[in-house]
Amino acid sequence: MIQNLTPQQSWEFLQQDPSAVLVDVRTQIEHAYVGHPVGAVHIAWKEAPSWEINPNFVDAIEELVANKATPILLLCRSGQRSLSAARALEDTGYAHLINIVDGFEGPLDPYNHRGKIAGWRFCGLPWQQS
Questions:
Q1: In a domain, 104, yes or no
Q2: CATH number, domain at 98?
């Protein structure tokens, strides 16, 4: 089962469970230049310019997290790619998957800007840029 948590709830979960792993599934450019949560491991679900699913995604997660009972929190820009990635991991037997709703940047505001309504960065949670 995939659980959906807000960025704040996800941060609290990470603080309470040191075995949990935070995976940023955005592209390399998003991860590096837009910013990413401190401590997040980057494994892209899709990569530009083709936007095809990364055929090595599950293998990379399995190398990172061998125990399929370990909690894995997944984050993207707004919570959609991370949900797709969580479903793929669920299909391979991972049992404790958490999709971070609103992702790193959150939904679009009325002016088509992200980061103004919700998301990891909007909430003031620890993040950095490369």
A1: yes
A2: 3.40.250.10
Question: pTM (2 decimals)?
Answer: 0.96
* Structural domain total, the chain: 1
* 129 within domain boundaries: no
Amino acid symbol at 52: E
* Owning domain of residue 113: 2-124
Residue 114 in domain: yes
Triad 16, 95, 66: Cα angle to 5°: 85
Catalytic residue among 22, 61, 76, 86: 76
- Mean local confidence (pLDDT), 58-62: 98
Active site residue 76: yes
- 86-98 pLDDT per residue, tens: 999 999 999 999 9
pLDDT in tens, 5-35: 999 999 999 999 999 999 999 999 999 999 9
